[in-house]
Design goal:
CATH superfamily: YjbQ-like
Largest sheet: 5 strands, antiparallel
Distance between the termini: 5 Å
Shape: globular
CATH architecture: Sandwich
Number of strands: 8
Strand order of the largest sheet: 1-8-3-5-6
Number of domains: 1
CATH topology: Jelly Rolls
């Protein structure tokens, strides 16, 4: 078995943003030389997620509305009470809601590959889901197989 790893750099522009990285992951798979196996797409961040779904603008609006309803920004999050939690350092963001959303969605997806391509339907895309933007982020793509 062969393993190939590469980092993608992502720049988000808004607080919650669905960034389609399907083509970039496909390029990494092509460059790996691996034809059969699986690809792991991983976000090493606690306020971002990796999801697979349909890239349709109205549906993405529905997803965003659902995320805001499930985990409202305006709720009180203990994480945001920085003055009570001086033992840790902070970048000053009140982002407890972002951490909670990421917990629900997860930080990685493993997708099977066949003939050098992800096995996705025509309606599936791989998204980096920014939950605490705008900022620079990394995504680790690890291709494993033969």
């Amino acid at each position: 078995m062969k393993i190939y790893k590469q980092k993608l750099e992502i720049k988000s522009a808004t607080q919650i943003e669905f960034i389609d990285i399907t083509d970039k992951v496909d390029q990494i798979i092509s460059g790996s030389g691996i034809r059969e196996g699986q690809v792991l797409v991983y976000s090493p961040h606690t306020t971002a997620s990796i999801v697979v779904n349909h890239n349709e603008p109205m549906l993405i609006q529905d997803f965003m509305r659902m995320l805001y309803q499930l985990v409202p920004v305006s709720d009180r999050y203990s994480h945001d009470l920085f003055e009570l939690n001086r033992a840790t350092t902070s970048d000053g963001r009140s982002n407890g809601h972002s951490h909670c959303k990421a917990l629900l969605l997860g930080v990685s997806k493993t997708i099977p590959m066949e003939r050098g391509h992800m096995i996705l339907t025509e309606k599936q895309s791989v998204f980096f889901l920014e939950l605490d933007g705008a900022r620079k982020r990394d995504v680790i793509v690890q291709v494993m197989g033969l």
